[in-house]
């Protein structure tokens, strides 16, 4: 398997982990075209994740904004409430085939942790989730969901107490027990083969969009928009269309308080090439290569890097990545709630915002598909606080 | 062009002695103390010294060295200030100095420029814990050109095939990781070290240095296998953490005690 | 239209409201067989509610418990997270056809309020939700969801500050503005025609179960279990099978701290015939007819009455209603989370508990279908508190 | 068998006078005060008195009467204790007494038994706000048998067809609801009352009593339509709420003032 996308990707990990990565790669090579594996995964997608997820025509949004037609790919209606479950099902099945009995993972917003804890419960695997201390605080609901599902949640207080530190700690833990434990990476990041495996398990999103839009509009999308933290929902919806050069692919990065402040996580817009978390990619870092503290009100996008395939798509110009601030995301969060009755994850709201900007500029016969990567129940307290609303916090 | 690491091991071999390799994080608590510490460690018997460059996200490190990194960063330590430290050390000592650092620090600096700096300041080798054999081309050519040794690591999980490849191009010594997991003092090492040593020795004549989790003279004595060197890191960093600017004497005592081993 | 089920049902409301009820009944009669209405509703079911909801084989639960096969009807995967949306879509469409521009409703757990606020946003209707003060406190998440969706939420502090009082206040408000406002009743309760209309809009659940189970097992269910607050998810899954006399229908009532304490809401088990909230049915009341304060940790079941059709099914023996305590519901809540990776609404957990009891007593060829009426995100804080877990409450 | 309600309206009609109907919630703040209040209201000119039986969930009531219900329930008032109150009142007065109550209180008591009790204690009529024409069979036959008048309500929303049916079987008087909404003092009544009166009058010769939201003499004077009676409830209950056990005199003054109308 190719370990790089152009110059990006690779396997920059401690020697101790190399064997585990090789083992995963070999297992994946063995199973990825195995018809049993494929049919088991298909059944899990359907029965557990609730796939295919709906492709929803946002009629009111389209009418109000004028211009291109907006469709939402409803990953929020998946079991556990986000696209994360697609990847978890795939990797959990792989881990099971490999004979692993314990899973570790990192989580940002908690969606990946919840999805992993959920499927670990189903597969009767031990599950240990690492989550930044600050994220534990802003996503308390998800923490308890994971615990309920039987997972052990460790709050990581090293570094900035967010997603990057959760990955650090999960990697450290994996180094301790890589002989028995499967590290279930939550996005298209980390060392090879994770970016490829996770992308393969998420690409079902774009594949569904293709036939669903064909059915509804008889065409391929003109523009596809997704938010990018690590980039799994993004690559998931982009991948099937990469060769369709006429399809515009746009990622929404978290610009936090603005890309000209110190409080953002806009990796492509402001980052530079680097090597971190096992991969060569783009990172927010200082001139010596120290990883910068990043900020986004969205825990799932609060990450200083991006998956190597996105770095490659950005570098080659195939996809474009635009920054969206907290304020803009909150605007989109409220807008979608009030207009379509859909409360999006604050992550997904970043993508919605771009659609709101772009749609009016397009002709009526153009179609924008936005990946609605998750639902926003987890975020309502935080958005309320952001909006200065005094709510009863139980 | 000789390399001080190779020279040192030749010398020790002739004397039938084991090498003691000690580690500190540069800039913890400040660079002046680091300067004193390196000299004192050599003084008390360290054969080689590893200087860690602090990094924001040291994923191969346990809490001890991780915290040292944070203290060093907080004190304003940068890669360039560490090259200055090396320059300064080289006015006092000709013993082997290695830098321990994460690949991003090299990559972002520019690998070629970084290696050139190593050569001009007097660094003899690099230990890059997140640069496995598969990615070694990031620095290998530059390092070879300037005769800076890239110290490769072997872990208990490394399989025979990769082991052979890794040692093949290695120079100076092999950094043998005693256990699964990150750096940090361990009360017990469960790896079958005798067998681990033998496995590696079959493939190479280079000195084999055992590291990760080593802390006391007693422990070093009890270790199976004919290791040519022991690497002690977290234990020393613990003392630095406890005594800060006043740690030089204490660290000296510790190194002296460890050195009495032979 | 028949206004009663046996002796139960009817229209016991202030004269002021009679005209509004008649108007609704007439509109419903006009539209219910109208092919446009039917096809619009079908599209809303599919595109908005995400129907059909999955019929999920609970493999691990079945294996662990031994005995009958357990299937879960996954209403938790509907948009907004419960069965409530089915009814809301139907009535909202009806209200729109009637030319109404404002909606009022009551809510207990907040699920009906959220569903109503959601669809009101989509239909651009004003929405005013009445919710007991105590429920506002235990379901703060849902309160803010409704507000985000643009609804006005009034906390009702009269009486016991729970669902019954929310209904009282919504009825009072309706009396004030019944000429312009549609009261979107959230369960199969209240005066005729609500119990019939709501049932008709919920019966899709049972209809889907019929063909889904036919596909999966080639048979009809042997036992169907649902929790009953007002009874809408219950009747929704029962209705299509009422004439199949061999199908056992079981409702799970909230027994709170136990039916022998003063803290429960087990209407059928402990109630008596009465007339309240516009209907003749069974209620928890004292010997003079004063409605008793009820208790359940589950806000959605914390109601002193039950829909008249259930009273009739109970009286005639066609369905059976069993009490389930808080402690038992929490046990089931945890069990399902850990066993199947599904966190159920605490309401639905009451039904799950009965399945856990009943399954082991059945032969392997028997099939139990449990209506998983909603998802449990809204309940995790409360369950955590119940379990004495110290969680970070943000 | 005569009914006091009918007698009273005949008498007033002959004198060309309007009736004043007043309301209190029995047991607010206690039954003894209620007893005094009823007698005082008659004394000061009330022609008929409605005694409200407190209910846990009075959905046709605004906050004033709802709170009175809660106070009355808290003081231990039950349906039976109210029948005792009526019995006691009948030792002092022969004026028309009506009970205002929710259908569940009748239903749960047993409609037949309840009506019998009304007869034996001396109740002349019942106002059941949540018993519309469609459900009247719950009590109708029993009430007719015992000559207890079931007072029907007409609202501004009642359409012609139902209006005709409702008045057809009515006795005593018709309770005409002035406005949409629940009970409670209103600063303004927006219904076209003249037209409302005419609409109902076309269908029946029974006295028409206007209620809901009435409170001051001035307001009553300004009301359009030849209403044969006015019903004042919440305004009186407000005074009871304010003065509690000491409200008898104040309520008396209020009733006297209202009565001066004519
Ligand atoms: C709903 C949602 N969307 C997006 C993301 C970002 O991850 P990725 O970029 O891998 O899709 C997350 C991460 O937690 C998420 O929860
Ligand atoms: C998830 C869920 N299930 C069940 C109920 C009970 O209502 P019903 O008995 O009408 O289905 C509610 C009410 O809020 C609910 O939210």
Coarse shape of chain A: globular
Main sheet overview of chain A: 6 strands, mixed
* CATH level-1 class of chain B: Alpha Beta
Count of helices of chain A? 16
This entry's quaternary arrangement is: heterotetramer
Question: Could you explain the architecture of this structure?
Answer:
The complex is a heterotetramer, with two copies of chain A (394 residues) and two copies of chain B (262 residues). In chain A, 44% of the residues lie in helices and 19% in strands. Chain A is α/β, with parallel strands linked by helices and 394 residues long. Chain A has two domains: 4-45 and 84-198, Rossmann fold, CATH 3.40.50.1100; 50-81 and 203-393, Rossmann fold (3-Layer(aba) Sandwich), CATH 3.40.50.1100. In chain A, the strands form three sheets. Chain A has a six-stranded mixed sheet with strand order 3-4-14-9-10-13, sandwiched between helices. Chain A has a four-stranded antiparallel sheet with strand order 1-2-12-11. Chain A starts with a strand and ends in an 8-residue tail after the last helix. Chain B has 262 residues and is an alpha/beta fold. Chain B has a single domain (4-259), classed as TIM Barrel, CATH 3.20.20.70. Helix content of chain B is 45%, strand content 14%. Chain B contains twelve helices and nine strands. At the A-C interface, helix 5, helix 6, helix 7, helix 14 and helix 16 of A face helix 5, helix 6, helix 7, helix 14 and helix 16 of C. The complex binds pyridoxal-5'-phosphate (2 copies).
Summarize the structure.
Chain A has helices spanning 15-31, 35-48, 59-65, 84-97, 111-123, 133-138, 140-148, 163-177, 194-202, 204-217, 232-238, 267-270, 308-315, 326-340, 346-358, 380-386; strands spanning 4-5, 8-12, 55-57, 69-74, 102-107, 126-132, 152-156, 181-183, 223-227, 248-256, 272-276, 278-283, 319-325, 367-372.
